[in-house]
Amino acid sequence: MNITQALACSSQLEQSSESPQADIELLLCHVIERSRTFLFTRPEYELSSAQAQLFEQLLQRRLAGEPVAHLTGVRGFWTLDLEVTPATLIPRPDTEALVEKALELLAPTAARVLDLGTGTGAIVLALASECPAWKLVGVDRVSQAVQLAEKNRVRLQLHNVEIVEGSWFEPVAGKYDLIVSNPPYIDPEDPHLKQGDVRYEPLSALVAEDNGLADIRAIAGAARGFLNPGGWLLFEHGYDQAGAVRELLSGLGYQSVDSAQDLAGNDRITWAAWGSPEAEPKVGDTFVGDRTC
Ligand code: GLN
Fold it and tell me: Residue 90: CB within 6 Å of ligand 1?
């Protein structure tokens, strides 16, 4: 089997995947341990019999529904390649909207940042890679997730991040300038849970009671005791939850509550400030200057 023949297998995935071409390219790159460019510059390259066999096995598993990220063990997020396992959520492009907003809310000068439910470490590691002057902490209550995020941190050599185990605020102390979270937010009855990649992800990372809002509510309530004056709280949430999250934050006494969309055009993130921004201009002001890191 050569590369052209392997790529043609994408037709087999047309019923079961929304991205058959990209799936096949990722699986093939993984099997032959080459970049995507190689697929197009060396279409006549013959796979060894071991490679062809592995490719066929992975194709069958993909046909059965397993996420590509579980088959290759990696997923690109922001500018980083992250190791992924079935112990955590697979990083999504939607979540890059949260990273972008976090970088807008705080200046790249010294700040303390907390990421609750860090999973692979995607958010906290992306922020750490952009802002070496920040001191960041990623928390997860699943020990395999903590181990995975720590492994990603070490491989990416991000020394300004600490990954710790515990439930939400339990293992942390002190005050932060920014608290971010992509918590579980899917309603337990949502039919979406029976489709696509989410079937292979841990429910503990996906599902929350109270129409999916229970964890967002709990974090928002407790975060008030962990934010510096004018500090920001920033959530990812479901495409139809922005209004409810804004209401919840206003009800808890947060100010400057606002939402934004992800690249797919869904309302995806909501943020708010705690206390008076004027009291602490360093963290309250939206950063508009040139980014220096
Ligand atoms: N956005 C993801 C999905 O709908 C879920 C992520 C989450 O629950 N935090 O598949």
Answer: no
Q: List the single range of 12-16, 231-235, 275-279, 283-287 with lowest mean pLDDT.
A: 283-287
Q: How far is the CA of 283 from the centre of ligand 1 (A)?
A: 29
What's the predicted TM-score (pTM) here? 0.92
Whether 182 is in the pocket of ligand 1, judged by its Cβ within 6 Å, is yes
Tell me which residue has tokens 């063990």.
73
The domain that contains 227 carries what CATH number?
3.40.50.150
pLDDT digits (tens, 9 = 90+) for 120-173: 999 999 999 999 999 999 999 999 999 999 999 999 999 999 999 999 999 999
Please check whether residue 23 is in contact with residue 13, taking contact to mean a CB–CB distance below 8 angstroms.
yes
Q: Give all strands (DSSP E) within 155-252, no chain letters.
A: 161-165, 176-181, 227-236
213 lines ligand 1 (CB under 6 A): no
Domain range spanning residue 55? 3-65
